[in-house]
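quick q for whoever's on today - can somebody do inverse folding on this one?? i tried earlier but teh output was garbage lol. C-alpha cells:
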C-alpha cells in the first residue's frame, strides 16, 4: 500500500495552477485558475485565451473540451490558455443592474455590480494575463446562467474586450429583461466587426421556467441586424436542462467559434 501511495504522488495529473490578483477596482483579492498548453514552455508561439466565469464549476470542463477539440492531426483548432475566474460574490459581479429576482421576488441587495466587474476585466485582469503570458489577439469569453447574462452584456456594451463570446443559457430574464429591451438599439449602434457569438439554451427549461423563452428574443434581433462580419449562431439543446446544457454547449460552441481556423 505504501508503494502504491508513493507511485500516486509521483504521478499527479495537473491541468492548471491557481494565481492571485488583488483588484483595486473590486477592492479584494481574486483567485484565477490558469491552464497552459502542453507545449507552452517549449515554443515561442502566442496563444488565444479563453476566459471562463464560475471557475469552480466550469474550468475543468472547459479544459477537457478544449483539449479534446485540439486532439489529433485532423484538428484545426489551436491550443489555448484558459483562465477561470473564481467567484467571491457571484450575484454582485454577474448581474449588470440591481434588481429584484423573479424567482421568489427576493430583493438581491448585492446585485448590479456588472459594470464594475467589466472594468476589472478590462483594466486589471486582461492586461495582467497579456503581460505575463504569450497571448494572441484572440480572446474568448464563456459564461453560463448569470455568467451568460454578463457575457451578453459585455458583447453589447464592451464589444471589443473579446473577439468571441459563448453565452450558455444566459439569464436574460434578469431585471424584467432590461438588457433585452436595450439590445435592439445597441445592436444597431455597435460595430460588431469580426466578432463571433454562440448562444445556447436548454430546451427542457421551457417546461419549468416561463421566463426561459426570453432567450429566443436575442436571436430574433440578431437576424435583423446588418453586420456583415458578425458571425453568430443560436442552438437549443432540447434534451438538456439549465445545468446539463453546459457540456454540449462548450463542445458545439467552441467548435463553432473556431470554424474559421
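ok took a stab at it. sequence:
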Amino acid at each position: 500500500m505504501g508503494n502504491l501511495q508513493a507511485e500516486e504522488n509521483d504521478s499527479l495529473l495537473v491541468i492548471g495552477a491557481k494565481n492571485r490578483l488583488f483588484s483595486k477596482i473590486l477592492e479584494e483579492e481574486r483567485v484565477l485558475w490558469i491552464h497552459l498548453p502542453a507545449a507552452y514552455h517549449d515554443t515561442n508561439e502566442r496563444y488565444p485565451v479563453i476566459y471562463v466565469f464560475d471557475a469552480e464549476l466550469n474550468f475543468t470542463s472547459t479544459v477537457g473540451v478544449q483539449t479534446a477539440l485540439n486532439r489529433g492531426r485532423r484538428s484545426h483548432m489551436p491550443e489555448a490558455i484558459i483562465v477561470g475566474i473564481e467567484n467571491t460574490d457571484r450575484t454582485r459581479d454577474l448581474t449588470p443592474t440591481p434588481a429584484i429576482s423573479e424567482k421568489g421576488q427576493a430583493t438581491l441587495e448585492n446585485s448590479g455590480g456588472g459594470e464594475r466587474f467589466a472594468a476589472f476585466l478590462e483594466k486589471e485582469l486582461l492586461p495582467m494575463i497579456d503581460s505575463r503570458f504569450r497571448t494572441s489577439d484572440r480572446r474568448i469569453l464563456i459564461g453560463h446562467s448569470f455568467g451568460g447574462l454578463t457575457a451578453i452584456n459585455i458583447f453589447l456594451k464592451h464589444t471589443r474586450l473579446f473577439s468571441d463570446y459563448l453565452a450558455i443559457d444566459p439569464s436574460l430574464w434578469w431585471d424584467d429583461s432590461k438588457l433585452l429591451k436595450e439590445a435592439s438599439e445597441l445592436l444597431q449602434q455597435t460595430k460588431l466587426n469580426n466578432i463571433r457569438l454562440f448562444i445556447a439554451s436548454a430546451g427542457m427549461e421551457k417546461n419549468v421556467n416561463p421566463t426561459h423563452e426570453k432567450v429566443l428574443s436575442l436571436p430574433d434581433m440578431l437576424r435583423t441586424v446588418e453586420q456583415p462580419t458578425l458571425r453568430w449562431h443560436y442552438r437549443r439543446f432540447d434534451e438538456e436542462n439549465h445545468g446539463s446544457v453546459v457540456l454540449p454547449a462548450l463542445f458545439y460552441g467552441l467548435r463553432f467559434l473556431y470554424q474559421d481556423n
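fwiw Helices lie at 2-9, 55-70, 90-93, 114-132, 146-157, 174-189, 217-222, 246-257. also Strands lie at 17-23, 28-35, 47-53, 81-85, 135-144, 164-168, 196-202, 231-237. so keep that in mind when u check it
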